[in-house]
Amino acid sequence: MKSEDIDVLVIGAGAAGAALSWSLTERGAKVVCLEQGGWIDPSTFPSLKPDYETHLTRPRDFSLSPNMRKLKEDYPVTTAGENPPFIMMYNAVGGSTIHWQGIFPRFHPSDFKVKTLDGVADDWPISYKDLEPYYDFNDKMIGVSGLLGDPANPPRSPRQTPPLPIGKMGNTLVKGFEKLGWHWWVNDQGIISKAYKDRSPCMLHGKCMFGCPMGAKATTDRTYWPLAIEKGAEIRTWSRVKEVMVDKNGKAKGAIYFDKEGNTQEVKAKVVVVCCNGIGTPRLLLNSKSNLFPDGLGNSNGMVGKNFMVHPNLFVTGIFEEVMDSHIGPMGSPLFSQQFYETNENRDFVRGYMLYGERTFGPLSQSGSIPWGEKHHDSFGEIFPHQVGLTVLADDLPEETNTVTLDDTEVDSNGIAAAKVTYSLSENSKKMLDHAAQKATEALEAAGAKKVVVPAPSNMAHLMGTARMGTSDKNSVVDATNQVHGVPNLFVVDGSSFTTGAGVNPTSTIMALALRAADKIWERKMEW
Amino acid sequence: MTQKKVWSRRQFSKAIISAQVLLASGALTFPIACKIDKKTQQNALLLESELETLKYAMDEIIPKSIKMPSASEVGGIDYILNILDELPDLLPVFQSTVSNLENISLAKSNKAFSEIEKDNRVAVLKYLEKDSPDLFGVLRNFTYESYYTSPKVYELIGYEPHPTGTMGPKMEPFDEKLLDRVKTMSPMYIKI
């Protein structure tokens, strides 16, 4: 596609970029997507090999963190603060959906109105009702396994395939939740349990994070991209954007990028959409400096990169007498509890968290904490295969002091400044995690665990909040249509546009937002 | 992995169609599950004496028990040699680890590491763990890796890795009756 023909330039081919590109192409827009990585050959997935776990335990090409992989298409992310997070993302066509577990919950209606309800953070300028049709439509596009009727969530459209099996570990957790009389439900998962739209069903191998060559897991290289390309969308792989260009009036006019050979290229478009995740997006905007935007594009109010959220968590583990075989079955969580999701004034924190059953990896990962020497085999035999994971995912409220900035010294393979993440847990999050640790322990003990291990808090791969949506151009980067304040043809659509993070995995919301943003962009096509 | 090579959209589409058919049939089970790349001692990157020290060290980290073999008994040394072939930057680390073990052993017992009593070998390793945690960490981690990626160990601990491409495990479908109580709960979300 020639530069002058391009209607919409999308930067980033992950969950948001794929859904948005498909939606706009389907309507007739001419879309080009620049992606810094390439297509991943499914035959190279570690999930095909018995030593897949080594990608977790040491730096390899499929490690979860770009700081471990250090591939040409990755960029370094340095970390600071009291609780520097472990940074996880994937750079390729499909983005981090290549790695994800496929857990597919939705935000609650209350998650969009935390200022109104709880007096903290800010309300989104949109509501659950605004996103609901897009959630449903996205589910239909990619295929979701699950079950209707969950009392903790608003009713939703029929799931495309039945729930995945929950296995021994899932049934064990059910016993605990039932004994306590708590809420639980089978998870919605972006992993199909029956064939759907030419994709094969899950065969329950449980290696989802190490690549799903079956295509049962809804990675966007297998869902949206083939459809978008068929309709005329173009992906330029190995194309790393250096900066988004603006014209003299402050409108976005395209991007400068490095091609695979490291040559600088320029591409022009009528509309630019940045979909580079909660770290990549602020990094690109901050690197896009000009006379009109000396502090970075869209950063006239200094909000780009602030309010970074990453979902603090606890990987709580119960050890049982019985064999649990938690490593058997789809890696995505079999079930969850939202017993403590909404704010309860009797607690010393606001908002809440989700507990979800977490499958374990294989023996190599589980051996990590086992002592060496004479007691090694006995210690290993106590935990394998006797563990059941119950993960806490806590609502991470935005804090201006948690930031993504440009690193002063580190650069990527093209010499572009790296990102630096500074993060500290808020007092609210600390209290929430303390409460969650007690409740997860209670649930595991009720399920029959003889011992419960609560590790130090860590974080999810959910990168959010750094170009957030808001009601005012004073406190946010984008408006209710995902348009960057003050730049009429520049949009940001990914986790960075989240106003708050909720207490659930973000991908379904990212994709629903992307489909909605595509509608909003298309509605304004006369302005192009 | 070969993801650094250019993989075109056309190649990708063809590959996933054929892969889905093969994977669904389980036809790839045998070749993938049996692919073990063994290296022989003649290609060794470490001297025989260094390999001897390494073997004794690995067998103290994961020793033999009544039911379980030691690290070297399941091919630990070959595994390390394969790793050194793949990651030659690690060679000086292993050489240094072996050298340290020998030096500590000589200082403490005036004997080679392989010639001292078991308790003394453990004491030497503990000394290395405290004095050079990075070196010890590499030795420990690769010993664990060699052990817990071994098909023989998998068999002994009852672990079936089910690599994608083989037939997956059998699991019972979800029993919706389990949710009977929860279905009677009032809506828990805040309606807005």
Automatic annotation (TrEMBL), chain A:
Domain of life where this protein originates: Bacteria
Keyword entries, A-Z: FAD, Flavoprotein, Oxidoreductase
Cited InterPro entries: FAD/NAD-bd_sf (IPR036188), GMC_OxRdtase_N (IPR000172), GMC_OxRtase_C (IPR007867)
Residue span(s) of domain Glucose-methanol-choline oxidoreductase N-terminal: 11-312
Cleaved signal peptide residues: none
Pfam families (UniProt xref): GMC_oxred_C (PF05199), GMC_oxred_N (PF00732)
SUPFAM superfamilies registered for this protein in UniProt: FAD-linked reductases, C-terminal domain (SSF54373), FAD/NAD(P)-binding domain (SSF51905)
Residues of the Glucose-methanol-choline oxidoreductase C-terminal domain: 398-514
Residue ranges crossing the lipid bilayer per the database entry: none
Assigned protein family: Belongs to the GMC oxidoreductase family.
Annotated protein name in UniProt: GMC family oxidoreductase
Automatic annotation (TrEMBL), chain B:
Pfam families: Gluconate_2-dh3
Top-level taxon of the source organism: Bacteria
Source organism phylogeny: Bacteria, Pseudomonadati, Bacteroidota, Flavobacteriia, Flavobacteriales
InterPro entries: Gluconate_2DH_su3
UniProt protein name: Gluconate 2-dehydrogenase subunit 3 family protein
